[in-house]
Predict the 3D structure of the following.
Amino acid sequence: MGAVWSQMMNPFVEQHQDAIGAVLSCFDRVVITGTLPDICHPKAMAGYLSYRDIRLFDYARWAEPLRDEVRANAERLAAEAGLEIEFIRKLKAFRKEDRVQAILAERGDQPGLVHIFSAMEACSSYRPWYDKASGKTLFKPTTGKCLHYYFYFIDEQFGLCYLRVPTWAPFRLQVCPSTATAGWHGS
């Protein structure tokens, strides 16, 4: 049915059907990105801080305790699961999926937390900017670097998944259900 549906819906396949033996179509993975609406863009973050009487130039001071709380929670989850957080020094020379595959070969595929990686990566941030013309301080979006945690876990329904958690506001999360390339096939 899938191949028939793909051929009916794909003009390229229809045009070249004599030369095509089969069509396979699927997603390699779906990555879901989540944000906190109150702080997910510069104007929202400025409003959030302003409402709490926090100067925009104190953004970093406001964000630091949240960063520390994310780190502490990652360490707590690792300790509760009997895991050590593995720091990745060279992202391009390391495949997380290969490491998870090796851990699964030893651990098995029972539900629960499988492994936690951490790595310094680019992250969204804001920079306060004083507009001399209007006399107002605004936030401008910028990119910085912060520690990110990758929580790999097996969910009973979705299989092997990961959650990517940055340690710096605005905390743009990524969830990837069923990481097919990591080799979990479930029962």
